[in-house]
Amino acid sequence: MQEKNNVTMDKITSLAKRRGFIYRGSEIYGGLAGTWDYGPLGVRLKENIKNLWRKKFIEDRDDMYEVDAALIMNPKVWQASGHAAGFTDPLVECKKCGKRFRADQLRGEKCPECKGVLSEERTFNMMFQTYIGAAKDDASLTYLRPETAQGMFVNFKNILDTFHPKLPFGLAQIGKAFRNEIAPRDFLFRAREFEQMEIEYFIREGEWKEQFEKWREEMLSWCQEIGLPANMVHEKEVEANELAHYSKRTIDFEFDFPFGRSELYGLAYRTDFDLRNHTEASGVDLSFYDEESKERFIPHVIEPTFGIDRTVLALLVSAYNEDSLGEEGRVFLKLPYAIAPVKVAVFPLLKNKPELVKKAKDTFDNIRKKIPQTVFDDNGNIGKRYRRQDEIGTPFCVTIDFDTLEDGSVTLRDRDTGEQKRISVEELLSVVQKHKSV
Ligand code: ATP
Predict the structure, then answer these.
(1) Where are the beta strands (DSSP E) in 68-180?
(2) Using one digit for the tens of pLDDT, what is the confidence trace for 162-176?
(3) Which of 20, 27, 42, 143 could cross-link with 127 by S-S, CB 3.0 to 4.6 Å?
(4) What is the structure's pLDDT at 263?
(5) Domain 342-437: which topology?
(6) Per-residue pLDDT at 86
(7) DSSP sequence for 386-411
(8) 9-73+146-317 adopts what CATH topology?
(9) Does ligand 1 come within 6 angstroms of the Cβ of 307?
(10) Atom 18, ligand 1: residue with shortest CA distance
(11) Ligand 1, residues 263, 309, 311, 313: which to mutate, most atoms within 8 A of Cβ?
(12) Could you tell me the pLDDT band of residue 437, with boundaries at 50, 70 and 90?
């Protein structure tokens, strides 16, 4: 049986909608550019990613502190961080059709839509503005956060005071970020509202190279653990003239998306830029007293950053497969067990036979107690159910038939090979549970 990836963005977006992973934001009103709504399976997939991340980078370590900071922060944060002045993209506008583009992403000097003449380049700040309270003036102006990072820097002192950590240690945060992207595109890849999983790892200046290297390896092992094929992930050293205003060294982890190789994650050495600026701007001392060296200094920071939506997209792209199984062939998502939104689907062979349905429901209840993310499905014929479960990446389907009523055995079908075997429910549980770590 020949498997083909054959993936395109159209196939991914239509599967995501058809099967209830991801819908266009505000769809019944024609959508809202750069926004996406996660449906039931998308939510599960995203939660599975977050839980794996939380386990690897927070729960399984002793040096990490998770925070969940407010999305709207005091505007002084964004002045101190440099975002108010510097978080900009170069914008050009077509004088003929009025469309706007990011100048650094254009090829040629004409409008790519209508070949009209383009305006001079100007800088465009990507932060969404909003007003706090009833007044709408400069004093009440603030922004939705464009990154989760600052929510950690402003809590640095709180963590010192309540937990007294020793260097090196990190703050971690999972949450939304907002960027008024000039040209949102490529489905989840460039949205205006998205989620990040970020770490600010505080270190002594002298150890930055070694810590940077450690985090580089951690990020690669994460990619491997969630099942991104190693040959689709590439490291790119960001050139000195392209570094963000706060960074001394950055590596982008790029992924081979259908539209080309583009940034999935980033790893940046932010020096002491943020804590130093917040110390100056807030007047609060954000230095650290190092018991080991008996010195007081502002720690430096290594920042691994992971976009969740780009992770979802990369996983959908790499898991997408087509093969010739069944009469018409099929589409299936070869998602790793830990990522798949449904682990096991339980079917009665026929839905109009009450004794089969009852047995299937009992078996389902039994399996669900041990394996969360198990579902019951009696919709349509069995072939349709397999096809539906294949498309959402369910690793195992279990069918209850007349033999089950006799001897308790069930049919277990494997997603990737389509192979079916008869086993007992106990065996089934141990087969499935073996996959937990995959
Ligand atoms: P790009 O160059 O693609 O605009 P960036 O270098 O500005 O990205 P960072 O500021 O490093 O991105 O953001 C950290 C992570 O957040 C990125 O690695 C990516 O995974 C995610 N991310 C950034 N912008 C977006 C967006 N518009 N939509 C979805 N995810 C995003």
Answers:
(1) 88-93, 100-102, 122-125, 129-131, 141-143, 169-178
(2) 999 999 999 999 999
(3) 143
(4) 98
(5) Rossmann fold (3.40.50)
(6) 86
(7) HHHHHHHT-SEEEEE-HHHHHH-EEE
(8) BirA Bifunctional Protein; domain 2 (3.30.930)
(9) yes
(10) 265
(11) 263
(12) low
